[in-house]
TrEMBL record:
Highest rank taxon of the organism: Bacteria
Gene Ontology molecular function: transmembrane signaling receptor activity
Record field: transmembrane: 44-68, 316-337
Matching SMART domains: HAMP, HBM, MA
Any matching Pfam family: MCPsignal
GO CC, alphabetical: membrane
Annotated protein name in UniProt: Methyl-accepting chemotaxis protein
Region of interest: Disordered: 400-428
Keywords, in A-Z order: Membrane, Transducer, Transmembrane, Transmembrane helix
Domain HAMP: start-end pairs: 338-391
GO biological process: chemotaxis; signal transduction
Domain Methyl-accepting transducer: 467-696
Organism: Eilatimonas milleporae
Length: 716
């Protein structure tokens, strides 16, 4: 109500006054009736405009809520995308950390410097990625990133220490302390090989065994055992029957070996400690990865919650605005309906009564100042006009009845006079019709008789025309046929002459064919003989190939036995230890040669099997060639027989051709007589057709003259 009261438009000021209760009326049912009565003085357009204003205000509110919802959801979804990207980047950094760990392990296992380079490259990439994440991090997330960066720096430094120690120990058996130890071993073993002593060799083998155990297990007890074996070796060396200079040499070489082992063992133990420290540092990096990931996950969940909360709030506001708008629109609609529909129905009832002729009916609503008041006033005017029009129509009907009686009396008098005149004219017309009927009967009889005669004349002339035309057509066809027969007889004579010459040439060709067939039979016999010899040779080759296959099988069995003996020799050499190393090498070479022999035998066997298959195919092909040549020989014999029969048939044809030539000459003479008779027939048929045409034209002229005469008679 305040909105309507303060709105500057005069319509809404009227609405405000209409809804303002009268000071003397209490707020009850009478007050509502007074409000409705006041609203009826407002135009319907203003009432509907009020409802439109309510709908527009509700729509603006809904659009405002929708705009607010869209903005807040867009912001929340943008934050969700930001934290989602941050989470993806954090997981990618964590995967890079796992790859960094993989490079570390690969370097320690493979001992390849390329993994150290890959570690450095991956570490730099992780540092750059963490720096790129700083702008998107805050609070705990940024603190976790700083701690992770520091731990990764420590891990990188520790890895450099481990890598340097590994390179110092040796990346393979020939580098670093491991290479020095190997060289010292070879030196002491060479000295003992030149000055053999069983006790010293056994003690040296025991030290080598302890060395291998330490390298494999990294147990410090093997260092002590080597020191013990060192003392035992020195004692045994002092008791050995070697010259002093030899003892001094062996003692020097032993000292170098023990010193190289101690250096290697110390570095290996230090390397193990540094690797343990490296793993401890790596475990600390997992906390940093987890901190960044938790920060991103929490931010993403918070953004999703904000979006959901915005949607829920927008839904509540939309429903509230909709309910308020529906209630306001419902109340306004009820008021508009009660102030519009009711008066319209009362006006409808009044109009219906007026339409039924009750012109004393009261028209309600003429006192209102809205559109319905104007309609009520117009209906009241129409009622008065209709009452006046009905009075005037009644007077007009009475006048028309009087004029109708007068006109009817005059019309009856005119009808009686016309009836008398019509009866007299009908009597005269009947007499004329009787005379015309008699004349029509005479004309019809004459017309029927003359039509029958003309029809017979037309049929006779038509039959004569058809007969003449038929005679002419027969003569034409006979002449054409005679000409065709003449031409055919001439062509037949020429063809018979050509045929006679061709038959002579055909006889000579048949004789030549007989000679060629006899030569072909001789060649086929020679080809059969050569094919038989080739088949025998190919069969012998197939037998030889089978024998070679058996020899190759024998070689393959020998290679398998040799391979088995080499394997047994290798096993025995392994059991013999150091003494069997040379024999083991020889056994290995023998085994390799046996494998090569078996492989070569397989290849040769494959080639021989292919050759056997080809030989079998060739044998089959040669046999097929032989069969084909035999069939060809039979065909040639048949051709020779047929040629002889053709020669006798040709002689008979030559005799018949001579007879046909004489018959063609006789046919030509007879056809000449037929052509002469046809010309005479054509002339006679032309004369008959001319006479028939003249007769037909005469009948048409008589028919036309008769029709004109009868037409003149009918018109009289």
């Amino acid at each position: 109500m305040v909105v309507f009261a303060t709105y500057p438009h005069p319509t809404f000021r009227v609405l405000s006054a209409a809804y303002r209760p009268h000071p003397m009326v209490k707020p009850n049912g009478l007050a509502m009736k007074q409000i409705i009565h006041n609203i009826r003085h407002i135009s319907i357009l203003a009432r509907v405009g009020g409802l439109a204003v309510i709908a527009i205000v509700a729509l603006v509110c809904v659009l405002a809520v929708n705009f607010w919802t869209t903005e807040n959801r867009s912001f929340a979804e943008g934050m969700a995308v930001k934290y989602s990207d941050l989470l993806s980047n954090a997981r990618f950094v964590e995967l890079q950390g796992l790859q960094l760990r993989q490079h570390e392990k690969n370097f320690l296992l493979e001992k390849d410097v390329q993994f150290r380079t890959a570690y450095v490259r991956t570490a730099d990439a992780i540092a750059n990625q963490i720096s790129a994440l700083y702008d998107d991090l805050s609070g705990e997330g940024r603190s976790a990133a700083v701690r992770l960066q520091q731990v990764l720096q420590r891990h990188r430094g520790q890895f450099n220490i481990v890598a340097n120690l590994q390179e110092e120990v040796g990346l393979n058996e020939e580098s670093g302390l491991q290479g020095a130890l190997r060289e010292a071993v070879h030196t002491i073993e060479e000295a003992l090989k030149n000055h053999s002593n069983k006790d010293l060799s056994i003690l040296m083998l025991m030290m080598r065994r302890h060395e291998k155990d330490f390298i494999a297990r990294l147990d410090p007890k093997y260092i002590t055992r080597i020191a013990t074996r060192d003392q035992e070796f020195r004692t045994a060396l002092d008791n050995a029957a070697f010259p002093d200079e030899v003892k001094a040499l062996i003692r020097e070489k032993l000292g170098l070996y023990v010193q190289a082992f101690n250096n290697y063992a110390a570095k290996r133990q230090e390397l193990i400690r540094e690797i343990t420290e490296l793993e401890t540092i790596y475990e600390q990096t997992l906390e940093g990865y987890e901190g960044i990931r938790d920060f991103a996950s929490a931010g993403y969940a918070r953004a999703q919650a904000d979006a959901a909360r915005t949607t829920e709030t927008a839904s509540i506001l939309t429903w509230g605005i909709s309910i308020v708008a529906i209630l306001a629109a419902g109340l306004g609609s009820a008021i508009v309906v009660s102030t519009t529909v009711g008066p319209v129905r009362r006006l409808q009832a009044a109009v219906s009564q007026i339409a039924d002729g009750q012109f004393d009916t009261h028209v309600p609503g003429t006192e209102y100042r809205d559109e319905l008041g104007g309609v009520a006033q117009a209906i009241e005017t129409l009622r008065d006009n209709a009452s006046e029009r009905l009075r005037l129509e009644q007077e007009a009907k009475e006048f028309q009845a009087r004029e109708a009686r007068r006109e009817r009396e005059e019309s009856e008098n005119k009808v009686a006079q016309e009836r008398a005149r019509f009866e007299e004219e009908a009597h005269l017309a009947q007499e004329r019709e009787e005379r015309a009927d008699a004349l029509r009967r005479l004309v019809a009889g004459f017309e029927e008789q003359i039509s029958k005669n003309m029809l017979r004349l037309s049929d006779a002339s038509y039959d004569m025309q058809e007969s003449a035309q038929t005679m002419f057509d027969v003569a034409e066809k006979t002449g054409t046929s005679a000409t065709s027969v003449t031409n055919a007889a001439s062509a037949m004579d020429d063809s018979v002459s050509v045929m006679s010459t061709a038959i002579e040439e055909f006889s000579a060709s048949i004789a030549e064919v007989n000679a060629q067939v006899r030569s072909a039979n001789t060649l086929c016999d020679n080809a059969v003989s050569a094919t038989s010899e080739g088949t025998d040779s190919i069969t012998s080759l197939a037998e030889s190939a089978k024998q070679v296959d058996e020899v190759m099988q024998l070689i393959e069995d020998i290679a398998a036995q040799t391979n088995l003996l080499a394997l047994n020799a290798t096993i025995e050499a392994a059991r013999a230890g150091e003494a069997g190393k040379g024999f083991a090498v020889v056994a290995s070479e023998v085994k390799s040669l046996a494998n090569q022999t078996a492989s070569a035998t397989d290849r040769v066997g494959t080639q021989i099997k292919g050759m056997q298959t080809s030989v079998e195919i060739v044998v089959g092909a040669m046999q097929n060639v032989k069969d084909i040549i035999d069939q060809l020989n039979s065909i040639m014999t048949g051709i020779a027989s047929a040629s002889e029969e053709q020669e006798s048939t040709t002689s008979e044809i030559r005799r018949n051709v001579s007879v046909s030539t004489e018959s063609a000459r006789q046919v030509s003479a007879e056809i000449s007589d037929v052509n002469s008779n046809v010309s005479k027939t054509r002339e006679v048929s032309g004369s008959v057709r001319t006479a028939a045409d003249d007769l037909s034209r005469l009948g048409e002229t008589m028919s036309r003259d008769t029709s004109e005469f009868l037409q003149q008679v009918r018109t009289m």
